[in-house]
Amino acid sequence: MASSAFSGSAPNPTGAQSIDRAGALLVSILDSATASGRPPHVATLARAHDLPKSTTSRLLSALERQGLIQRDRDGAFHPGPVITRYARSGQGESALATELRPILQHLAQETGETVNLAIAGSQYVDLIDQIDGRYLLGARNWVGTPVPYHASALGKIFMAFEVTQIPAGRLEKRTPFTLTSHDALLAELAKVRKQGFATIVDELEEGLTAIALPLFDSAHHVIAAISVSGPSSRLGDSTVKEIVQKMIKAIGQPGKAGAA
To answer: Whole-prediction pTM value?
Structure first.
């Protein structure tokens, strides 16, 4: 009886060990990002933690499913949207909005259109600040509204520059013009990377056009995105090109002015 009682109360090390190992992998990825070092791959992490590659891959996949990490096109791992959103939450998010508000105000005055600032959320684009344009007919208040990545210019920026991944499964059709094919979305994101900005025309709401540019930190990581939006009837191709140039100038970062 004593032996049976002892064996029944002995801890099962498997679950705790897996948590410890996954935690250690996450810390390594975060440390690499904090140090602005080279993002690690599966093989690098497996060697560093003396783990089989298959075990390392399984643990990393679990962290990735929870949004704690994400991998880029080369298979290297970075902090995921849950981590980055937490890092910018609260005072950090407020400080970012405060720092960038003069740029938003300048763009709203220059373009006359609505200007938004956004960061990547865990499931949706997280809009944290908005300056309304001077027109009565303009975009509504988007701050706090869940905006799907695939149907927004801001979301296309975050996916194109690998701040977040393309949503798995079926893509919600918000309008007849929403990109719901993964192949079409991948082609669109390649275009965004090439030209340096993203656009939507009637994809989130019919009659709404938006243009978005990324904001980079000193390590050339995208930390946020800014968009200018307004009625599609007012934002034709030539106007979009003008707005892109104004955004590049206001943000003070390199950009490309390819055709929208």
So the answer is: 0.65
Strand 77-79 and strand 114-120: the pairing is unpaired
Query: Residue 140: helix, strand or coil by DSSP?
Result: coil
Domain 2-79 class, CATH top level:
mainly alpha
Please give the structure tokens belonging to residue 145.
């509204």
Give burial (CB, 10 Å; 0-12/13-18/19+) of 228. Answer: buried
Mention every residue, 6+ apart, whose C-beta is less than 8 A from residue 33. 39, 78, 79
| Mean pLDDT of all residues belonging to the chain | 84
User: How many alpha carbons lie under 13 Å from residue 246 in its C-beta half-sphere?
Assistant: 21
3-state secondary structure at position 227: strand
Name the segment(s) of the chain with CATH classification 1.10.10.10: 2-79
Superfamily of domain covering 86-251: GAF domain (3.30.450.40)
* CA distance linking residue 248 with residue 256, whole number of Å: 8
Question: How many Cβ atoms sit within 10 Å of the Cβ of residue 114?
Answer: 25
How would DSSP label each residue in 42-80?
A: HHHHHHHTT--HHHHHHHHHHHHHTTSEEE-TTS-EEE-
Helix (H, G, I), strand (E, B) or coil at 127: strand
Give CA–CA dist 134/183, Å, rounded: 38
pLDDT, one tens digit per residue, over 137-168 is 655 677 777 889 999 999 999 999 999 988 88
Tokens of 256: 């490309």
